[in-house]
Amino acid sequence: MTTQQPGPVDPRCDVPYEELLTGLRRLIRAEGRRYLDDPNITSIGLGHRVVGGRETGELVVQFTVEEKRAEPEALAALGTTPVPEAVTVAGVRVPTDVLERRSQPALTHRSTRGPGERPGTADVPAGRSSRPATPVPTDVCRTSS
């Protein structure tokens, strides 16, 4: 894997699209664990670039992080390093995209119970998030140990 300046994937390139996807999946399986050793990176996968909350249709290798920072000092304070701007597979440069997603527990357990409540009941949030749901197109995700 080499790091190069980002640029859109050229659909007219000599590599068939399915072959490119296969190569990118192999790269993620081979290199993904190394990236996930970074405490700030929570997943790596394939997707489309997201700008202003909307997908652009440009194929990218997506990294999700707990905190998105660009300044070297801020990255160092998080104990993290920058992700590459692009990866090259089969001679094709594919840009990366970094998305900030914070983990939140789906269920929270009540620390006290009210009169008549059974032990072990949980508060379950109802309603919708203020942010639209976006599927996370990851091939490799960090699992809790």
Task: Describe the structure in brief.
The chain contains two helices and seven strands. It is an alpha+beta fold and 145 residues long.
Number of helices: 2
Distance between the termini: 28 Å
Question: Portion of residues in helices?
Answer: 10-25%
Which overall shape is indicated by the principal axes computed on the Cα atoms? globular
Give the strand content. 25-35%
What does this structure look like?
- The structure is a single chain.
- The chain has 145 residues and is of the alpha+beta class.
- The chain is 19% helix and 30% strand.
- Strand 1 (41-51) and strand 2 form a beta hairpin.
List its salient traits.
single chain, alpha+beta, five-stranded mixed sheet, globular, disordered N terminus
Question: How are the secondary structure elements laid out?
Answer:
Blueprint (H helix, E strand, L loop, with lengths): L16 H20 L4 E11 L2 E12 L6 H7 L7 E4 L2 E9 L7 E2 L12 E2 L14 E4 L4
Parallel strand pairs: 2-4
Antiparallel strand pairs: 1-2, 1-7, 3-4, 5-6
